[in-house]
Amino acid sequence: MDDAEGTGETSPFHAGEQEAQERAGVRDRAERAGGMIRDHMPEQHRDFFAQLETLFVGHVDQQGRPWASLLTGESGFIASDDPTQLQIQADILEGDPLRDSLQEGMDVGLLGLEFHSRRRNRMNGKLHSLRPGAFSVKVAQSFGNCPRFIQTRHLVARTGWRSGKQTRARVIGSAQRRLIEQADTFFIATQFSEGKGEAAEGVDVSHRGGKPGFLRIDGDAQILWPDFRGNALFNTIGNILLNPRCGLLLVDFEGGDLLYMTGQTEVIWEGPEVEAFDAAERLLRFTVEELIHLEDALPVKWEFEAYSRVLEKTGSWE
């Protein structure tokens, strides 16, 4: 890693993140914000993870393809004995690519997100102590994120739940198209590593949100979405600049379906395509290489809080 400009301290950002920050004109701001990135979890983050009933996981399969996955469990399925690690006990869903990816020492990105409070915290690190139904993650980077673009939902138990059929494909079919077009939320996993063992290297998983329709399908294998003004860290885009592979996860919060996709992404920085999206800073174009659609897969669901109620409480749907 390079020294932070003007600080003489080691930057928490790798070259791709720094390039994206520079191009967006937020390099100095990002470096200041980088002070919140730690090599351990503060107590409030440890307590936050321990109360969650869901956890989003970014990982890379044996072919080097990133995926984003979702783990569920009763509150307490995530625990922390010390500030440098999380212990996770969860059964991975049949068909989830994480089942075949798990191995000792692999990089993972974790995102804890509580939809009803719109709180989210991230932790990236290495997996260890792998055993049936459980593993631990050693912290490399730990930091919080603002609640922008998180749609408020309330987690409830499902009744009559059953695991449905699985579909694997290389193009977007009609069932997947409906899920994508109605989505207001998705999760993206990216990865970059030069093998130096630096804290900024590894896997990251992040939330993206917008009003339904912000994901636009082009043909049968491409998806475009706007990138709005955010926290200026550029973890996701920074990784993509150095490694265009990424994984997407869409959740049918009411129906229980999961749509996993992996492929290649390019960043569109300017031009008429960007201008066509209201408030977009830039666009990302994703090309599907493989998708996995698990129908009725989740043992939980979320009740949606209308945009009008969010607007009434916060003054902004964001």
Automatic annotation (TrEMBL):
Residues 1-29 are annotated as: Disordered. SUPFAM superfamilies: FMN-binding split barrel. Residues 16-29 have a biased composition (Basic and acidic residues). Gene3D superfamilies: Electron Transport, Fmn-binding Protein, Chain A. This is Flavin-nucleotide-binding protein.
